[in-house]
Amino acid sequence: MNRERMSGVLLHVTSLPSLGGVGDFGPAANEFVDFLAAAKQRVWQVLPLGPPGYGESPYSALSAFAGNPALISPQRLAEGGWVAAERVEEWARSDGPVDIAAAAERKIPLIEEAAKNFGMMIPWSFWTTIQV
Predict the structure, then answer these.
(1) 39 Cβ partners below 8 Å, 6+ apart?
(2) 28: number of Cβ within 10 Å
(3) Which of 37, 79, 123, 131 is most buried, taking the most CB atoms under 10 A from its CB?
(4) Do the beta carbons of residue 42 and residue 6 sit within 8 Å?
(5) Integer Cα distance of 129 and 124 in angstroms
């Protein structure tokens, strides 16, 4: 058992600033981790990260294994070249209340486009080596 004392912070990812109306694993998440490291905090405790169910509560997740698509960063998709940066730059930061359902609804088409583009970036020779 590790007896070394540690300290940290409880902050759900959706509380971070980002584009699209809800915090995600974009640049602000990296900046937050850097801040924690500089403050000698060793633990970042988050609430459940699954797709929320009734009332958009993370505690009523629809799956114990799936991730919440609203937490995918549009900025990271653009950085990867999977979506056009112009599509993401038009999104404004939101200072109002978090609306996870609206953010997910807005992000899903972008995620689907990124998945399609990601698949097209992989050479055909790779796909033929996969055995099912």
Answers:
(1) none
(2) 19
(3) 79
(4) yes
(5) 9
3: which 2 tokens? 């007896």
Q: CA-CA distance, 89 to 97, in Å (whole number)?
A: 21
Q: Tell me: the pLDDT tens digits for 54-66?
A: 887 778 888 888 8
Nearest to 72 by CA among 117, 35, 106: 106
- DSSP calls for the chain: -------EEE--GGGS--BTSS--SSHHHHHHHHHHHHTT--EEE----SPP-GGG-GGG-S-SSPPPGGGS-HHHHHHTTSS-HHHHHTPPB--S---HHHHHHHHHHHHHHHHHHHHHHS-HHHHTT---
